[in-house]
Every structure is written in structure tokens, then in C-alpha cells.
Amino acid sequence: MGKLFLKKGKEKVLYSHNSWLYTGAVAKREKVEVGDIVEVYTSEGNLAAYGFYYGGRNIEAYLFDFSGSKQDLGKEYWEQRFKNALRLRQNFVLNKTTAYRLIHSEGDGIPGLTVDVYNNIAVIDFKIAGTEKLHDIFTGIIKDLGFDALFVSGDVSGSLKGKTLFGEVPAEVLIEEYGLKFSVDIVNGQKTGFFIDQRENRKLLEYFAHNRNVLNLFSYTGGFSVYALRGGAKQVWSVDVSQDAINVAEKNVEINGFDTSKHIVMKENAFDVLNDLPRDVYDLIVLDPPAFAKKESDVPNAIRAYREINTKAIAKIAKGGIIFTFSCSQKIDKDLFGKIIFSAAAKTGRRVRILHRLTQPADHPIDIYQPKSEYLKGLVLEVN
After folding, report:
1. Which CATH code, of 3.40.1050.10, 3.40.462.10, 1.20.1440.170, 3.40.50.150, is assigned to 195-383?
2. What does 214-261 look like in DSSP terms, one character per residue?
3. Of 187, 349, 375, 382, whose CB is crowded by the most CB atoms within 10 A?
4. Residues with catalytic annotation?
């Protein structure tokens, strides 16, 4: 097993239990290979932690164990983390939905790994080489927990992505969330097929939708649109650039038995729609764009994009209108996102009030020692 030795005075990074070990804290490396599990030692030579060696320009390793003692890191070790994660979902999530996140990276003590579940089919994403190297162990654990199938939505090497590691994955999975049905394409859909992380925020929108004209931008397969219809919206417009997504959105409205004449789909670029948006027509707008900032160099352009779409929505929404606005960019923290929305509101000169601050649900737990694990930020705004 490779070893990392910290610089003198850098041990405090371990005491904070931050899973990201930065390169600047490391004094010496011994027998390290990308993807291997490494032991991390203090400058005095005491074992302090274990992590996945990453070897990046800024991040040296992703730490997962701060016990400071020798550990047997075989199947039983990781199985306990899976069982702990499943217990949390059984307690707080499974009474609401058949689609949930079982493993949320740092939030469940396994950085670089996510596992989503649709009915009883697991979908795994290996985000770093360290978790990908353990794919056999994770596959065995998931199988032992009783899941019917395991599909790989992403990996680092490219050797596993798109493969079914056991069982069979159907072309369509029909999930249920708060009593609503949604069609999910696990194999070809965005992320792992559905935006599980917006569950509670969709439910909240239902209460605001009554008797409103709802514009759902970046609508994907229409999750917010379906909840708006159940909430009694007068009319709902779903806007997405993907025809496949639009087709599924229409299907999701139909399978829930809603009046399809109240749902209008638009295969359009959301930016173009906002440019041509008539004033005072829509009184509830959803802005749930894809991540504009996936790396640090994207942040300046992301700030401009978030400001642009929010400025236009705030300027053109009807008086007394409600805006659900989100960022899922990890590089844009909640304080920065709040400042962006403030500047957008100030630019319009309208009176804007925050009614709710939104985040990710319980099956996407936030590691208190790693603030960046809180990637989903949202605000509910009232505009006068």
C-alpha cells in the first residue's frame, strides 16, 4: 500500500475530516499509483487516514477513513458503509419514492462513488479511478443486498460505462414518487435517467402551482411540469432542447391521467425562449439548468449565464409571480449563487423576496466536513 506523509503543521486537515487532501499539504510520497488506496501519515510518522490516491494538480487524495488505526479494507469494510447508507434511506426516503440515491459519495463515506436505485435496479457511477478499481467488491455488495440488476452509467477508464454487471435492465423503468408515475430511461437518459435530487423541490412547487401559468425551462422529462399539473396549474409549458426528453415529458403527463391540453411542449433552447418571452404571461417559472460550471475555469461564464437567465425571468414574470431557480454546479456555492440572484434582481429594479431556500434531499446527504458536497442550491422567489 502506498504512503503519503504530510508536511509539518498540515495535520489540521486531518482533524477537520475533510475528505479532500490537497497537494500542498503533502511532503513525501512512497509507492503511490493513481487509483490505489494509500495510507496517510502525519509528519511524525503516525498513521492518520486512508484515501484513494488521485494525484491531481490540486487534489492529492480523497480520504475516506480517519480512524488513525490499521483497517482491513476488504468487502466487509465497504459493505458496512452500504448498509449504513441503506438504513438511512429506509428511515427517511423509501416511504416517498421507488427512486432514490443509495450512495452519495462523501455524504456516505465513499468519495468518488454514486449509486442510484430505480425500483430495484441499481445504477453506479465511478467518478474516480479509486472506486472503479473496487468495482468487483461493490458489485458483490449490491448483489448481496438483493438488488435485481446493476448498470454502469459512468467510469474513468471507459471500460465499464454502459455495461450491465448483473441482471437485466429494461428499456423503460416506471418509477413512483409521491404517488406520481415517471418513465425513466436508465441506459440513455441524462445523469442516471431522472433528476432524483429535485424530489422535495418538485413537491413544494405543487403547492405554488394552483391556478398559475407555469413555464418549466430546461424541463428534461417534465418532473416539475407533472407536479404543477397535479397542483392545479391553469397551463404548463415544458421547454427543452432534446426531442427525446420532450417525448418522455408528454408521456409522463399522459400516464398520470392529466389533461394533455393543459400541457404544451416546446423543443427550444431555453435561452432563446427567455429572449423572446412576453411580459406578464407566466406567473410561475422554473429555472433548472444543467451545471454551467463543471470545472474552476467555467465559473466566470457560469456566473454570467445564471445572471442572464434569472434577470430575464425576473424582468418578465407577471406581478406576484413565483420563480423556482436552481444551480447544480458544485463550483458555484450557495453564497455565490445568492449574490448572482441578488444582482439579477437589482438589475430589473423589481421588488423580489425569498420565500424558501432549497437544497438536496436526505438521500443526497451533505458531509458537514466537505461543504462542496452541497452541490444543489435553489431559491423560491416572489416578484412584484
Report:
1. 3.40.50.150
2. EEEET-TTTHHHHHHHHTT-SEEEEEES-HHHHHHHHHHHHHTT--GG
3. 375
4. 328
